[in-house]
Amino acid sequence: MRTGGAAQALAYEKIREQIVTGNYPGGMKLIEERLAEEIGVSRTPVREAIRRLEQEGLVRRKKVFKPSAKELRDHFKMRILIEAHAARMAATYMIDDDLDELKETVGKAKAIRDDSAAVVRENKKFHDLIVRETRNPVMIETVDRMQSIIYLFSRAVVINKRPGLLDEHAAICEAISARDPEKAARLMEEHLEADLEFTLAIVDWEE
């Protein structure tokens, strides 16, 4: 049985993976004794892992976070404010090397569109590259803190194959490449609003 920091890290990764992959559904109670037995560690590292997941927003009161529709909208409002601004900044300041990386990410996601897990990774990379262009540590840190919840939402969008998702990425990339800040911001806002509406339609939300 692993102990210490290695056990806590293992417990955190295992529980987090089960949550973000949907194997631990929203509302499920996390029972320390059962999780410790499943993972092969003592209850202490499980308790610390749950506390860390609570800080990330994936767990609330020892239950897997199941957001309300309002909480989803609140998250997306923050994302839209930051990422529309980020797209505007990217169209103005993104250097050619970073633009090439963005284009590569868009192309790779299209080429592997049937591999949902890989598309989720490329989706995250696409948005991360653009958010980085805010050059604003507070905005970047805010998005970082939201990453676990963002991952849950974006995974639902990708797994359920929202129509137009990858084409929208390509259009945003094209606007950034054309150095059109207002168009890039508008397309990003429309893109995230489409993600929001799609997620609201496919998920059974808490009241």
In short:
The protein has 207 residues and is mainly alpha-helical. It has helices spanning 4-20, 32-39, 43-56, 69-93, 96-111, 116-132, 137-145, 147-159, 165-177, 181-202, and strands at 59-60, 63-64.
Topology:
Layout: H1 4-20, H2 32-39, H3 43-56, E1 59-60, E2 63-64, H4 69-93, H5 96-111, H6 116-132, H7 137-145, H8 147-159, H9 165-177, H10 181-202
Antiparallel strand pairs: 1-2
Helix pairs in contact: 1-3, 2-3, 4-6, 4-9, 4-10, 5-6, 5-9, 6-8, 8-10, 9-10
Pfam families: FCD (PF07729), GntR (PF00392)
GO molecular function: DNA-binding transcription factor activity; sequence-specific DNA binding
InterPro entries: AsnC-type_HTH_dom, GntR_C, TF_FadR/GntR_C, Tscrpt_reg_HTH_GntR, WH-like_DNA-bd_sf, WH_DNA-bd_sf
How many beta-strand elements? 2
Question: Which outline best applies?
Answer: elongated
Strand order of the largest sheet: 1-2
Question: Total domains, how many?
Answer: 2
Topology as a string of helices (H) and strands (E): HHHEEHHHHHHH
**Straight-line distance between termini:** 41 Å
Count of helical stretches: 10
Q: Radius of gyration in whole Å, from Cα?
A: 18 Å
How much is the average pLDDT? 91
What structural category do the secondary elements indicate? mainly alpha
**Poorly predicted ranges:** none
What is the CATH superfamily of the largest domain? GntR ligand-binding domain-like
Give the CATH level 1 class of the largest domain. Mainly Alpha
**β-strand amount:** under 5%
Assign the CATH architecture of the largest domain.
Up-down Bundle
What is the makeup of the main sheet? 2 strands, antiparallel
Do you know the CATH topology of the largest domain? Answer: Four Helix Bundle (Hemerythrin (Met), subunit A)
Helicity, as a percent range: over 70%
